[in-house]
Here is the input.
Amino acid sequence: MGRKRDFVSLSRGPNKALSVSCDDRRNDDPQAEGKRETEEADAIKPPTGLGIELFEVAINQTSSPTTFDKKMSSLDVARAELALAVLYLNKAEARDKICRAIQYGSKFLSNGKPGTAQNVDKSTSLARKVFRLFKFVNDLHALISPVPQGTPLPLVLLGKSKNSLLSTFLFLDQIVWLGRSGIYKNKERAEFLGRISLFCWMGSSICTTLVEIGELCRLSASMKKLEKNHKSGDKNQDEEYRAKLKKSNERTLALVKAGMDTVVAVGLLQLVPKKVTPRVTGAIGFVSSLISCYQLLPSPPKPKTV
Here is the structure.
């Protein structure tokens, strides 16, 4: 009868056949069915004693990867930030600008009066000159290098004047360092050359200001042309427009810094002592130094696209 029932059930469909044959087995062997139910109940029983501890450890291990991943991601972020800091501090220019901020911050605090702040100002100023040894070669190289095509002649002349004046300032500044360190014995001539070097620095700052104004005018004209071409669409989606906007922001910041450096040079030369006091010189020089530190920051790595 069992075989016949299975045959009939198979003719009705596979699902019904499976259910009927299983029911037949359970009805034919009730002891095996009871044993099976006991094993299933034991399998779903909660653990006791040592089993509870192992069970909790297993749950923690299954849920811990999320926390572990968060810790690793935060560790990766901290490692990346430290790598950028190391890259930044490895630059001699960056260390020079940090010392410059300390120097002018001390000048602001001292206000030209003797004391600890003035001592920090003078010692930091002397230490900075070591960072600038042979730095005049950079601007000398820029002086003899070709300019980009399409640059107007006035901007070319202003740029070359800036390079020559800044190179002269850095070269004379080395003689000032030799005089203040005691290697060069003629102190009067060293101070005279130091004053000439400050005039050269002020002239280079003025040239930089004029160059940045001219370049900003050129960028503004080209950006207006791009805006006319993108009247119907979003101009911010254009890569060329975004690149020019970024360059415009950078040049605006450089223009502000060059103007501040001009005022600092006037203060150091004491051309207008009543208006540009040591405190004003220190405050403007400190802000200018912070801008320089910001300009030297390394760009963060771009996220990888899959």
